[in-house]
Amino acid sequence: QVQLVESGGGLVQPGGSLRLSCVFSGSIFSLYAMNWYRQGPGKQRELVATINSGATISSGGSTNYADSVKGRFTISRDNAKNTVYLQMNSLKPEDTAVYYCHTYGPRDYWGQGTQVTVSS
Known about the structure:
Mean pLDDT: 93
Order of helices and strands: EEEEEEEEEEE
Helix content: under 10%
Largest sheet: 7 strands, mixed
Radius of gyration: 14 Å
Number of strands: 11
Distance between the termini: 40 Å
Structural class: mainly beta
Low-confidence stretches: none
Number of helices: 0
Strand content: over 45%
């Protein structure tokens, strides 16, 4: 059974940075594409960033981003540590949301979410 555990959220001022982590367990991490979603107050959950499985290298893989975060956020993975990261720079108040780690196989798998609040 795949399990995902996020960490790294918190309160940060506009223009600041945070790095989210998601630890994967229960299967072979390198075989899974990984995603970060977020859900802001009163908003629908949206896809923020994706990274493919990249099974042949220790980290990396092709990536895609929502237009709203391109150039500010970077998704990466370390297959040796079963972990996917989301580096968030130049944070804006509109980035405030609960951020969720996600993957899929026979079904969707979600982490519990980590709160990111961008406020002065």
